[in-house]
Amino acid sequence: MAFFQNCEGTGRRDILRAGVVGAAGLSLANYIQLAQADQLNKQAKAKSAIFINLNGGPSHMDTFDLKPDAPDEYRGEFSPIATKIPGIYISEHLPKLAQTMDKFCILRGVSHSVAAHQLGTEYVNSGNRPLPSLEFPGYGAVVSKEMNGDPELPKFVAIPRSQQRPGYLGVRYAPMNTSATPTIGSPFRVRGMSLGAGLTVEDVEKRNNLLGRLDRTFGEFEAESQLLDGLDQFGQQAHAMITSRKSRDAFDISKESPEFAKSFGESNLGASCLLGLRLVEAGVRFVTVTNGGWDTHRDNWNALSTRQLPPLDEALSALFNGLEERGLLESTVVYVTGEFGRTPKINTERNGRDHYPRNMFMLMAGGGVKGGQVLGESDEKGTLPKNEGFSPDDVAASFYHSLGINHEKEYNTTTGRPVMIVRNGTVIKDLFA
């Protein structure tokens, strides 16, 4: 029987195999630690990363790039407040972040032209403008490939799941999705890693036996499959992790002191950020946290002031302060973004703002990033970068730079096509101290 690859380099057999094993309740290579560190810049400060995806596209005009002197049809309902750094102002609904401004950098005037949610998300989660012929790997997949990790821990964890895909690197670099968000003060059981909910070591052994049967079933096919080359390691390491106290402890946020956990609040975002901190402290290399609700076409200011901004303010400020308190801020780069901004001109019919990629904000902290500054600027109405601005590609190149990964390094797709990690980005030198 012949097997063919599509233009993204995924074989039909790979798709079939993924379906079979997925139906058995197994994650394929989420736990596989096959990658070896390669050509990392040893001078880089960041050893791990937390990527926070604000799904839906947060309004730059009502958060980190207010325009109080703009005409009424642009300005919005919120007022700016002073931050800890003289001359820097952000939304009145972000008072805790205002007092931690020294720990992070605001990038204003970030601009692109992809106004659809899915494509915009793919763009900012990889640093490469999407192409129909190629799926680029997300940050977590590249970090998993380039950086060594603890064999008892996954390198790439998504809370609760991530839009970042392994792309042409193959499924061995896919994330471990927790599929749920934790609750502060309560034990967090991750399916497939915890022995809770009736799962026993014997159950794991049965799953490993199933993997062996699958190996024999598919053994007659080509040996170079992206999936086959990791199944043995998956079986061994999944078993090791599910019985590892270190792994279970890392995911159990109930072990945090009530005093430390209190600052993260009671929201899903706060609990997810606390879990992200615990994971990088334990040795996980890359954590994504996804937070939705930012698609505010309607009722923008009520949604932001009552539902979106208070948890963001609490969670991010607690994360920055908590990383510093644990001595992790310099070794952990934090990247916060949505897929685009929102229209500067108000949608009066629905009292909201619509999709707008031409101008947006991003935040970065830790990992050698110089806090307490604003880089870039938008025009007086928040419609475009005032000068040249930044692209998501530039921010991606800078993000990899903080981790010591050369963004110009080339990988080969399964068809032999050479592709740079970030094809068009330039490191923003002023980001770094």
Which properties best describe this structure?
433 residues, 14 strands, 12 helices, globular, eight-stranded mixed β-sheet, 13% strand, two-stranded antiparallel ribbon, alpha/beta
Task: Describe this protein's structure.
With 433 residues, the protein is α/β, with parallel strands linked by helices. It has a domain at 28-98 and 112-200 and 244-282 and 293-331 and 342-357 and 402-431. 30% of the residues lie in helices and 13% in strands. The protein has helices at 12-23, 72-75, 95-98, 117-124, 139-146, 201-218, 231-242, 245-251, 258-262, 268-282, 300-325, 392-402, and strands at 48-54, 80-82, 89-91, 104-110, 156-159, 176-177, 286-291, 332-337, 341-342, 355-356, 360-365, 373-375, 410-412, 418-420. It has an eight-stranded mixed beta sheet, sandwiched between helices. The longest helix has 26 residues, at 300-325. Mean pLDDT is 85; it is low at 1-38, 192-201, 217-224 and 226-231.
Helix-strand blueprint:
Elements: H1 12-23, E1 48-54, H2 72-75, E2 80-82, E3 89-91, H3 95-98, E4 104-110, H4 117-124, H5 139-146, E5 156-159, E6 176-177, H6 201-218, H7 231-242, H8 245-251, H9 258-262, H10 268-282, E7 286-291, H11 300-325, E8 332-337, E9 341-342, E10 355-356, E11 360-365, E12 373-375, H12 392-402, E13 410-412, E14 418-420
Parallel strand pairs: 1-7, 1-8, 4-12, 5-6, 5-7
Antiparallel strand pairs: 2-3, 4-11, 8-11, 9-10, 13-14
